[in-house]
Amino acid sequence: MEAFATNLCRCEEKNLHRTIKPRVRHPTHCRQPPGNTRTSYRAVTIPVISCSMAIGSKSRPRHLPKKSFPAYAYLPGRHPHPVRDPAGHSYRVEPMPVTADASLGSDPFLWGLDLFNHGYYWEAHEAWEGLWQVADRGGPSRVFFKALILLSAAGVKIREGKTAAAVRHSQRSAKLFRRLNGPSEHIVENALGLPPAILADYAEAATRVPAALRDVPLGRPQPVFDFVLGSDCQGH
After folding, report:
1. For the segment 177-208, what is each residue's pLDDT rounded down to a tens digit?
2. Is 235 helix (H, G, I), strand (E, B) or coil?
3. What is the residue extent of each domain of the chain?
4. DSSP H helices in the chain
């Protein structure tokens, strides 16, 4: 736990005096209409998490705005494999260097946030895997990065329409996020803008209430989660 807090100190310092609350957006159909407050309404129970999963036009800012996104958002079987195929968007491209003491303010972590938030889920998983590999085995940082990797994998499966696999990945991700409590919980909330327990609920809800996916051109990214990771963005 001490190593986790030390390695992520830059993120902690940046948000030291900031209280972050979960960002929950409610579509207009979930709000009571203005006007006569005495109007009677039939009592209906609508889970807040269900309302938040209605994917709409949402501002998705950038953490590393000067870095260009890949040429396409990879889906297995539909595009060249990004690193194995000579036609892949990252073929023979050196990944960002990762060090064992990388913090949540490091470029590899922030690049993963950008990729995830904008619908490049396979690419986000790749960005975070390097951080997971160098994290202390059994430590909270390793649990944290594994949870993000599984959440990204769930995003890929949702886009592929593979519900069973999406549910499996999202449930595993949620289980890991719920293990991050105590000091780790505060650090994760500062880094992602959401407490890990809330993020776990969102991960599970994404497969219980699937996003209404649009038809998009092959290769175009498509966000499937109605939340944005990251508490402080540097540009748009």
Report:
1. 999 998 889 999 999 999 999 999 999 998 88
2. strand
3. 2-208
4. 2-7, 9-14, 48-52, 107-117, 121-134, 140-160, 163-177, 183-192, 196-208
